[in-house]
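Lecture notes, continued. The same structure-token format from the folding unit now serves as the input rather than the output. Read the line below as a description of shape only.
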């Protein structure tokens, strides 16, 4: 994969990374609950789909605002000068072009596909709730395709960083896995917060969701260790950037925010509430745990993005 021009990304892009990951995680939870859950899990599908849309809209706006002109996003997908052709890793038709070796072009197309699937799923749910008609076919198809796209959208920012000519990012090949895990954790944690507020009928679904995001949290910790090992074990210029996280100026935020608040404390709270016992003791500290996961998830992406740009 070719290297991209070294970026200087502002807070808007870091918010986009966080929100699109959260959206993807919530939609993955919604899709799994819809395809494999029962009627009692319908609340997860409804909350997850609506939350995915609510998080995606401002996230996409932040991306477009950062581009400076909305037309730049369109130009990633369409050009009036593009002639119909197939070959050399690209397809062009009626001005639309797909460049399989361009991370920005592929990312723009997947964002379009994902956003469309989220919108269609929310529309199907809304029509079912308001009209009482069965739109399960549309819901299942859009949900399945959207869930596949959601995995890509959650991991994509990390892979984009790994393909960028910046110290630490270039060596941190597991960044895609880390961003995917953070997206899954934060998305499901946000859904859990809403389910907790909805009351007792969601207790069974809430327990399953907590178990799922606890597993994702363990994977997040493993991926974070892998990123640090890869970055710190690379060339000197990569190790120097990684040390900004472990012992440099970002170390207090990284260790306290990303590791302690974002991983260790939530996992301890989940174990305390009965992670290994099926959460038979009730919701317990789920609101606190989920809120900490959201804060920690943002901090992880934020400091990793800062470290790569500061070296």
């Amino acid at each position: 994969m070719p290297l991209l021009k070294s970026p200087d990304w502002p807070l808007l892009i870091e918010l986009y990374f966080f929100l699109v990951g959260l959206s993807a995680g919530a939609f993955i939870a919604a899709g799994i609950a819809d395809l494999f859950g029962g009627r009692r899990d319908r609340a997860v599908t409804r909350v997850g789909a609506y939350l995915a849309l609510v998080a995606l809209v401002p996230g996409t706006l932040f991306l477009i605002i950062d581009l400076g002109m909305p037309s730049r996003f369109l130009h990633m997908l369409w050009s009036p000068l593009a002639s119909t052709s197939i070959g050399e890793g690209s397809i062009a038709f009626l001005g639309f072009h797909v460049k399989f070796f361009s991370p920005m072009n592929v990312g723009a197309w997947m964002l379009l596909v994902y956003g469309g699937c989220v919108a269609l799923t929310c529309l199907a749910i809304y029509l079912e709730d308001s009209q009482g008609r069965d739109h399960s076919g549309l819901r299942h198809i859009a949900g399945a395709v959207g869930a596949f796209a959601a995995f890509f959208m959650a991991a994509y920012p990390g892979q984009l960083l790994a393909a960028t000519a910046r110290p630490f990012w270039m060596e941190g090949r597991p960044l895609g896995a880390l961003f995917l895990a953070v997206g899954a954790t934060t998305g499901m944690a946000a859904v859990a917060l809403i389910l907790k507020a909805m009351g007792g009928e969601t207790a069974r679904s809430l327990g399953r969701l907590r178990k799922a995001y606890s597993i994702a949290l363990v994977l997040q910790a493993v991926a974070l260790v892998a990123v640090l090992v890869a970055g710190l074990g690379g060339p000197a210029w990569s190790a120097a950037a990684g040390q900004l996280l472990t012992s440099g100026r970002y170390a207090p935020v990284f260790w306290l925010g990303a590791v302690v608040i974002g991983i260790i404390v939530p996992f301890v709270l989940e174990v305390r509430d009965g992670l290994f016992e099926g959460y038979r003791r009730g919701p317990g500290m789920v609101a606190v745990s989920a809120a900490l996961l959201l804060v920690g998830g943002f901090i992880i992406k934020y400091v990793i993005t800062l470290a790569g740009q500061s070296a």
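Point for the exam: The chain has one domain: 11-310.
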